[in-house]
Write a structure and sequence with these properties.
two-stranded parallel ribbon, elongated, 12 helices
């Protein structure tokens, strides 16, 4: 997982302005590998659909993933025949590598891709890109698992797809429904910032891109699609599933350790309605209360288990103190991550020290209430002791939540006055990662170059987002 700096803060989402008739608004990439038979009908059908239904100028880009048959020649003939079609030749395989290469160099403000088999009905294409053109969303994906989707495929692929998305929900807390449908789009300004952070060059590329976008708070639009399985698909299911699981582990580890600079992917202050100051409505209070109650309930069960274990070898006071100490540390760590959303190791020791102070205040409150009860009368009834302890614990719980929220884990957006001007963008990329220049598609056969430098002509280079990233072991 790359942790190097990204080009800068994302600009505010706005409706794309109407440009010149010849300037493409949409660039649809079709990654192919040895698809000499399926490529011509796919491109012609897609071009006919876009010419008939899409209200903006468009481009179709064929990204050849090191094909060994006549696919490059077929692509060149299509580019010469249809003005809106271009072709790019890569000397290394990998769908993610192809998408990153073309998307990084494209001048179209909306970038999309679809599989060559056109399993997804093309009527979903305009609904897919419309939210990106309007400025409503940052990414858009077709979903085969939405309720309104109509899907025809075998039980094996259905089970694998649903199982994989359940794994993503359970391990990476993904909220999007379908990670691997070959029907996605992204705004170019978002792609320029996200692509340098995506490491995978194969089939996991989609998932990694979506997880990073979602964790950064970007908006992902989902479109129900009609999808028919391609029985002649050459995807190796077992190998692809294994690589995907490795990718899930790698991304999950990077997110858990806080090694990804997701804070650089934020929008300017004021672009999100949650930035607005609302009198009497603290940010995230309801969610934090729910999380605090859940963590508190689990911490209580953990305390009881620890007390029972320690009681076997120590007296009640010692067992109680040890169990309370361990459960307090666990409670602070859980609230830090789950309730208040603090990630990474920064400030963890300080948070634990503050948590122990808060725990000590609550312990003093409960112990003092019980001592006051015993001093007020001789041998109070057991029911009275329980009532006092319950009331004291409720007060201690409220106090602990308030101290956690205001002192231990304060909302960073409340620490100062709201800015009145947008956050300035970061400096332009350094020479180590040059910004791609717009390019024009020639109508001629592609030129074969080195694996890390692809081009559409002998004079116009097409630079990938990460020229230092190669994956010799990628066999897809």
């Amino acid at each position: 997982m790359r942790t190097d700096s990204s080009p800068g803060t994302l600009p505010a989402r706005e409706h794309l302005p109407a440009g010149d008739a010849g300037t493409p608004v949409l660039d649809v990439v079709i990654p192919v590998y040895n698809e000499e038979k399926d490529l011509p009908p796919c491109v012609r059908r897609l071009h006919e659909h876009l010419a008939r239904t899409f209200p903006y100028a468009f481009r179709i880009t064929i990204a050849d993933n090191a094909s060994t048959d006549t696919t490059p020649l077929v692509a060149a003939r299509l580019a010469a025949e249809i003005p809106e079609v271009g072709t790019v030749r890569l000397e290394q395989k990998g769908r993610g590598r192809a998408l990153r290469t073309v998307w990084s160099a494209s001048d179209a403000p909306v970038l999309a891709y679809m599989d060559v088999d056109l399993s997804t009905d093309l009527n979903a294409l305009l609904p897919l890109v419309a939210p990106l053109i309007s400025g409503h969303s940052d990414l858009a994906i077709g979903s085969r698992l939405a309720r309104a989707s109509r899907v025809v495929r075998g039980p094996k692929r259905e089970f694998i797809s649903r199982a994989y998305n359940l794994i993503l929900r359970g391990s990476l807390q993904a909220r999007f429904s379908d990670a691997q449908c070959g029907f996605k789009a992204i705004r170019r300004d978002v792609a320029q910032v996200l692509l340098p952070l995506v490491e995978d060059t194969g089939w996991f590329f989609d998932t990694e891109l979506l997880v990073l976008a979602e964790r950064a708070g970007l908006r992902i639009h989902e479109v129900p699609v009609d999808w028919v399985d391609d029985p002649d698909s050459t995807v190796h299911i077992v190998r692809t599933a294994t690589e995907d699981l490795k990718g899930v582990w790698r991304v999950g580890k990077a997110l858990a350790t806080g090694s990804l600079p997701l804070d650089r992917l934020t929008r300017p202050f004021g672009d999100d309605p949650r930035d607005r100051e609302l009198t009497g409505v603290p940010h995230g209070l309801a969610r934090q209360l729910v999380g605090f109650c859940v963590v508190g309930g689990l911490s209580t069960l953990f305390y009881l288990v620890l007390y029972s274990a320690f009681r076997q070898a120590a007296g009640p006071q010692t067992a109680n103190a040890l169990a309370l100490l361990v459960s307090a540390v666990a409670n602070t760590a859980a609230n830090r991550r789950l309730t208040f959303g603090v990630r990474g190791r920064g400030g963890a020791v300080r948070h634990q020290a503050q948590g122990l102070v808060v725990f000590g205040i609550g312990l003093a409150l409960t112990s003092g209430s019980l001592a006051a009860l015993n001093a007020a009368g001789d041998s109070p009834a057991h029911s009275t002791e329980l009532a006092v302890l319950i009331a004291a614990n409720l007060a201690a719980t409220v106090l602990r939540f308030l101290l956690f929220r205001a002192w231990v884990f304060p909302d960073r957006t409340d620490t100062g006055p709201a800015p009145t001007t947008p956050v300035p963008t970061a400096p332009a990329p350094t020479a180590a990662r040059p910004a791609p220049a717009p390019y024009a598609w020639p109508h001629q056969a592609p030129t074969h170059l080195h694996a890390t430098e692809t081009t559409t002509s002998a004079t116009t280079p097409l630079r990938p987002a990460c020229p230092h990233s190669t994956d010799p072991g990628d066999t897809r």
